[in-house]
Amino acid sequence: MHSPAGGQGLNLGLQDAFNLGWKLAAALKGNLALLDTYHAERHPVGAAVLANTRAQGVLMVPDEDVGALRTIVGELLKIPEANRYLAGMLSGLDIRYDLPGRHPVVGSRMPGLEPSVLHAGQAVVLELGAERRYGGVHHARGDLDVDAVLLRPDGHVGWVDDGFEPLEAALTRWT
């Protein structure tokens, strides 16, 4: 049960449905293994959202002691790093799944991604370097140190061209 303030429970439900939806579509095409990833990816997210909505509920209690805590939290929000941390947590943009790979962007949402890059629930290969080796969608970005990434249908990075594994293995896993 989530407090309605901020709509985090609603956002969580939408993300759960999207995560499960593309995996069910893949299962209908024969990739049943993707369904096994749902719980591992979404259960920790649900637990974290429940914890932070419960904490927000406590902060709303009209009590003098809680008022002192609200004042301290308000002061912490003036610190840019704390503000970014809480904004990421409250928006869900900080979600990073524990996926195979060694690059720090694997499992997270693609930084600076234009929503139009995602195509109707399909995985997308973005080629970030000058050389086009994978036949993917060219999308220039200068802040990642890789030439290509595979975006899962939910916008999370499922693979990067860092030598950990070939693209074909990631495509087999995520499509």
Automatic annotation (TrEMBL):
SUPFAM superfamilies: FAD/NAD(P)-binding domain. Gene3D superfamilies: 3.40.30.120, FAD/NAD(P)-binding domain. Residues 1-52 form the FAD-binding domain. Keywords: FAD, Flavoprotein, Monooxygenase, Oxidoreductase. InterPro entries: FAD-bd, FAD/NAD-bd_sf, RIFMO-like. One of its GO terms (molecular function) is oxidoreductase activity, acting on paired donors, with incorporation or reduction of molecular oxygen, NAD(P)H as one donor, and incorporation of one atom of oxygen. It comes from the Bacteria. The keyword Oxidoreductase applies. The keyword Chaperone does not apply. Its cofactor is FAD. This is FAD-dependent monooxygenase.
